[in-house]
# Entry
Amino acid sequence: MNREELRQGLKRLLTENLELPEAAKRETLDDSLKLNADLYVDSVRLLQLIVYIEEELKLAVPEEELDFKGLDTVGALLDFMAELRPLDAAGQGV
# Structure
């Protein structure tokens, strides 16, 4: 996926799966938006979002690579997502 596809997928997850009104109000998710302060993504929602990234976007999220401190903006989350591998049919990163 390219960055815009990831951005659209992220917006869908935030608006449909997590039902965050702050994300739904925005036409696009700018890289500088803070997940917590601007979109109200707290630590629990961030964990839910990581699960949705795997389940819905079919991207493998290795536990050892998770650094929640570094995932503070939309841009940082998109950078993280861009590094993920697609899941294969068995649910493993390829």
About this structure: DSSP finds four helices and two strands in the chain. The chain has a mean pLDDT of 92. The helical segments are 3-17, 21-25, 43-57, 74-82.
